[in-house]
Structure prediction request, 483 residues.
Amino acid sequence: MTTLVFVHGWSVTDTSTYGDLPLRLQQQAQANGLKVTVTDLWLSEYVSFDDAIGMDDLVRAFDHALRRLALTDSRFACVTHSTGGPLVRAWLRAQREQPSLYSSLRLSHLVMLAPANFGSALARLGKGMLGRLKAWWDGVEPGQRILDWLTLGSADSLSLNLDSIHGDDPAAAGQFLFVLTGDRPDRALYDHLNSYTGEDGSDGVVRIAAANLNARHAVLALRGADRDDDPIDRLGLQLARAPRSAFKLIAGAAHSGRVHGIMAQAGPATADAILRCLQVDGREAYAKLSAAFEAENAARDADKVELEPADPFAPRVHIHDPRSLLIVRLADESGRPLQDGGFLLTAGEEASPDLMPEGFMLDRQAHPEQPAVVSLFLNYSLLAGDARVADPRRINRSLRPAMPAHRPYGARIRPADLGGLVHHALARSAPGDDLLEILGPHQATVLDVVLPRKLHEGAFRLTQRLSPEDFSNPVIGPLIGTD
Prediction:
């Protein structure tokens, strides 16, 4: 590898955002006698703060900039931060799907630092008053089209991620993707007007689960025909998992900042992890490093209590349970969104919402333009059951007792239209399915809930009466397909 391209994130206006990371990588590789030698460094300067520029524009511009490098061996590697990760992934898809329009340059390694692969809860707020104030203060536009992409549950981000989940394994073709993300916010950067900046389970900007490419796609849809005597549709579960992807938590790192930022203030742990990624030279080595990262993540999760100093008061206690991001899309079999549909998680054999573990729901955010798409931020440990959490100051004292799982978990769906010529019915997941199976610690899941359309014969009738007949108040009649 001779060329390494660095790609920054949203709303960056200065290359100081990279800090000393490029130089640190170059020096550390040489000092450690590693096989990786970085002899050609390129820093990206792309514009995301112009409201007219979208992700598709940046993908084309990125391709054009790469062509101008005149790479001798047509190969390069990338280290990205935040929005830079999905930008390069979108370029890889465009390159694959439109080979006549995009260059044939070969990306061998993509190391993503805190990538907003599934977006950020902050993006919606960034489009509002806070974003406009920030843009006014910085003298730039907020970059509305990029923020649209980054909004949780956006159609564009889900399209890219579903392609990855159902696509071929990049490692099988010698292309290696890595995600490195911080495990907590920088408490010094907490914004009292925006609690997302101090949200546990995130790095202060991007949720850990939203960065991870080890994602899943689940579908709840009708199995077989309706039973005439059952007013509730039973929805069966289907599940697909993304190809295994290397994922590592960088302990103590945050999304940005002068002290704990994962890129600009990259410490030895970040630089070492990047170099471990860049040394991967084959599928076997990639699988080995992925397994090593998983073991290191498990060790971090076992030591999950943070005591935040709050002098002169007692420290604030943070229990860093693994979280899950569940993006629910409600639609019917024709693809129409179910507006105003209700979606509830249930627990136990009784399938009751009242039996869900206390505190399992951390956040709920509906997409501003697509209200049938809702992102749920869930405490995976509380759903799966967790051992007692001891107080590190007094090991015989508990911060939280052992928490039992309340399985099986299911779902209830109540559409807004329960009657009429065309409508939907109440629905629930099939009793034999447990929705915990679709979730993973530090992982995102896209859940499509597909309800059948109930069509009555009154929508279309034939008559032999030749005299005028008023059918402005039609008789609904029986359901089509059940007689």
Notes: Residues 173 and 263 are 28 Å apart (CA to CA). The longest helix spans residues 283-302. The radius of gyration is 25 Å. The longest strand covers residues 323-332.
